[in-house]
Amino acid sequence: MKNKPKRGGFGLVEVMISLMVAMIAFCGAYAMCIQALRITRMARDESKSIQAAQYEIEKLRTYSWRQVLALGSAYTVTVAEAESGNTALNDLAGSSAIIRTATFAMSTNRQILTVTAEITWIDKETNKCTNTITTLIARRGLLQ
Prior knowledge:
- By secondary structure, this protein is an alpha+beta fold.
- 46% of the residues lie in helices and 24% in strands.
- It has four helices and four strands.
- It has helices spanning 12-61, 65-70, 79-83, 87-91; strands at 74-77, 96-103, 112-122, 128-138.
């Protein structure tokens, strides 16, 4: 009795199994890429909000002490005002900035103010996000 010659190659079942394994691996890699893009977008928005808050605080530091006190305890930065220089605020969708000032608790005669810049924006998943930076501003500088 003669033996049948074996043919090289894979059968249909082996090909289907290897395609399923490859498909599962590619789906996992795709899901990781989507997650990485989402995290990168969130980090970019967080970074832009911190940059926008820092810009508003530094802009406030250029004002005279009278101008700072004249602003009151809170004011909102409008989109039109932000377009003149705060590009980070413009890059955030639905963003707004609220700057609050208050007398520092250990200060006498309003010589030191606590300044809080609060940036709010809407992310890609339509969640409202907020980032806040707080600092001190003194009439004659912090080192007197």
